[in-house]
Design goal:
The complex is a heterodimer of chains A (about 325) and B (about 280).
Chain A (H helix, E strand, L loop, with lengths): L7 E11 L6 E12 L5 E4 L6 H8 L7 E6 L2 E2 L5 H7 L3 E4 L13 H11 L5 H14 L16 H13 L5 E5 L7 H18 L2 E6 L2 H7 L2 E6 L2 E7 H6 L4 H8 L50 E2 L8 E2 L6
Parallel strand pairs in A: 3-8, 3-9, 6-7, 7-8
Antiparallel strand pairs in A: 1-2, 1-4, 4-5, 9-10, 10-12, 11-12
Helix pairs in contact in A: 3-4, 3-5, 4-5, 5-6
Chain B lengths: L1 H24 L1 H4 L36 H37 L1 H16 L2 H11 L4 H28 L2 H9 L3 H37 L11 H8 L8 H28 L9
Helix pairs in contact in B: 1-3, 1-10, 3-4, 3-6, 3-8, 4-6, 5-6, 6-8, 8-9, 8-10, 9-10
The chains are: A alpha/beta (about 325), B mainly alpha (about 280).
């Protein structure tokens, strides 16, 4: 599966949303860099407001970044003119959080799923109709769903429609932005299973964004933990969950409710609130809430350090691991 | 049950509109008298207009002309104003509003500031100025009314487009790779239709009355050509002694506007898949 060249390379991505008065602004993304291999599922986790949704949208150029590069399929997306970017969208698709808001309520399911094919002029109307039927079957919806409208479906079924639409173009990369957060817990696992099955059958690559560590654990090969616009720790899922290095990751993992009685949290719960992203703390953004904060944490921002020498796959940005 | 009633109303409204259109189109055959002819027996000995009766069905006006014939011929004018002038103003307003709302940037700013300018300018004054530039004829008057009336539509369409283009499904379609044109015409415009329909049906009464105002000022459709509006204005001083002169064309305007309203509402519901089968 793993090609020599990464599918996606994100390099020093910065996104600042300017203030009304033009000075300062919110630093939603602060020099985010990572690479993703073909077939690898990367889970992006973090609290609300940490910039994880902005990251997904900026990678897809739905929001243009302030600076930094996104290289996808060998092309520099940030430099592509509008029309070329529009063509590239065939290869990268997105699944949104709210499956009702992301479907045009005035279109029936058949035209919703066929829309990407129509947009990119793939196949005749008859071929598109067969493809829609095949996709409905793939995501586990009955064939007669084609004639109905989004409001006639439950949340889970709507998310299946969104997944079918994202699959229609056989994309190389699917950015899933909190795809199960709006769903009932009982439905969440069905959708996650579907995503996993599709990944196996079609060799998909997901960038999976979620605030829910338990959900990410279920799908991700690699996990990136974000805090205030930065990736603070990134590594193989089992290492992140078994042996988290960054104090922030440690408190997040400890906060996952345990199933066994008696096995209480192994780290103290997080104190305080997420800082105002417009005025982030100096040095390490996490230091005001960090149980291990030292003097230099307040002044000097830690760089990402490789802590698994040789593999190059586990990086932590913390002075404890310098 | 409710839909059935609404359907019946819609059919009634459609019948009324069809009658008016047929009456206007066939005015030459249906009208019992020429609309511009004054009749000696059309006035009482004191010179007062005649009430509705056997010979003059709707009575006569202050000059002793047959009101029924004038209303029939007036329908031609009023329909052209209500449909063409109103239609053109809807078209301009929608186009300006949707482009300004979706493209934004300097294009949007220029378009909307121009709209504000037009809005701040007294509509009647503008109409007078435009009408003075061209010799008033039915089509010129229709265009003048369209030029004055599109601003409100543009405002409404603009703010709706701004809200719509922030909706997630628009972003989702953009992420599929849709062009701007496709997003505008396939995903934004259909959602604007209900508002445009409502505005269009309301505009029928507004434009017909605006034409009447222009006629009253002498820059509308030139007399003796009748329009529903100028019949009312010509005869308004006789309102207490001959109320039918104002009441009959007034009722025609109201009924036409209400009929279009009902029809528009039925269309709005029929076009919205999320409302289908909910009211039964």
């Amino acid at each position: 599966m793993s090609d020599a060249l990464p599918l996606l390379e994100v390099d020093s991505l910065v996104k600042t949303f300017p203030n009304r008065n033009g000075r300062g602004g919110i630093h939603a993304l602060n020099r985010v860099s990572f690479t993703q291999r073909r077939g690898e599922t990367i889970g992006i986790v973090g609290e609300s407001g940490c910039g994880k949704s902005t990251l997904g949208r900026t990678i897809l150029q739905l929001i243009r970044p302030t600076s930094g590069d996104v290289r996808f399929l060998g092309k520099q997306l940030t430099l592509l003119p509008d029309e070329a970017l529009r063509q590239m969208r065939r290869h990268m698709q997105m699944i949104f959080q709210d499956p009702f808001a992301s479907l045009d309520p005035r279109m029936n399911v058949a035209s919703l799923i066929a829309e990407p094919l129509v947009i990119h002029r793939l196949g005749t109307a008859a071929e598109q109709a067969t493809e829609v039927a095949r996709l409905l079957e793939t995501v586990g919806l009955p064939a007669e769903a084609a004639k109905r409208y989004p409001h006639e479906f439950s949340g889970g079924q709507r998310q299946r429609i969104c997944i079918a639409r994202a699959l229609a173009l056989h994309p190389e990369l699917i950015v899933a932005d909190e795809p199960v957060s709006a769903l009932d817990v009982s439905i969440q696992s069905q959708i996650l299973n579907l995503l996993n099955v599709l990944k196996r059958e079609r060799g998909l690559t997901y960038l999976f964004i979620s605030h829910n560590l338990a959900v990410v654990k279920y799908v991700a090969d690699t996990v990136a933990v974000m805090y205030l616009g930065r990736i603070v720790e990134m590594g193989p899922a089992e290492q992140i969950y078994e042996d988290p290095k960054h104090p922030y990751t440690q408190s997040l993992i400890a906060a996952i409710p345990a199933l066994q009685p008696g096995s209480g949290p192994s780290a103290p719960p997080l104190q305080g609130e997420t800082p105002d992203p417009e005025h982030p703390p100096t040095g390490c953004a996490f230091h005001p809430r960090c149980p291990h904060a030292m003097a230099r944490c307040a002044t000097e921002a830690p760089k990402a350090v490789d802590i698994a020498p040789g593999s190059g796959r586990h990086a932590v940005a913390c002075h404890l691991h310098d | 049950m409710r839909t059935l009633l609404a359907d019946r109303l819609a059919i009634l409204a459609l019948c009324f509109i069809a009658t008016i259109v047929a009456g206007a189109a066939g005015a030459h055959w249906f009208a019992p008298f020429p609309p511009e002819e004054t009749f000696f027996d059309g006035l009482t000995l004191e010179g007062a207009p005649l009430p509705p009766g056997e010979k003059y069905w709707f009575g006569t006006d202050l000059l002793g002309r047959d009101l029924f014939s004038r209303v029939l011929f007036g329908a031609q004018t009023s329909l052209v104003i209500g449909l063409v002038a109103n239609g053109v103003s809807l078209l301009i307003g929608t186009l300006v509003g949707i482009v300004a709302g979706y493209v934004r940037g300097w294009v949007g700013t220029v378009l909307m500031r121009f709209t504000d300018l037009m809005m701040a300018f007294p509509a009647l004054l503008l109409a007078i100025a435009l009408a003075a530039l061209f010799t008033p004829s039915l089509w010129i008057v229709a265009m003048v009314i369209a030029m004055v009336n599109w601003v409100q539509v543009a405002r409404v369409v603009y703010s709706l487009t701004v809200t719509l283009s922030e909706r997630e499904f628009v972003e989702a379609v953009r992420s599929l790779g849709a062009t701007r044109t496709r997003i505008l015409f396939r995903h934004v415009l259909p959602h604007l239709l209900p508002a445009i329909i409502v505005y269009g049906t309301l505009g029928i009464a507004t434009t017909v009355l605006l034409e009447a105002t222009l006629s009253f000022l002498g820059i509308g459709v030139q007399p003796p050509t009748p329009s529903w509006g100028n019949i009312i204005f010509e005869n308004q001083s006789y309102f207490s002694t001959a109320p039918w002169l104002v009441f009959i064309p007034g009722a025609a305007i109201v009924l036409l506007a209400v009929s279009f309203n009902i029809l528009g509402d039925t269309m709005r519901v029929a076009l919205d898949p999320t409302l289908r089968g909910r009211t039964s």
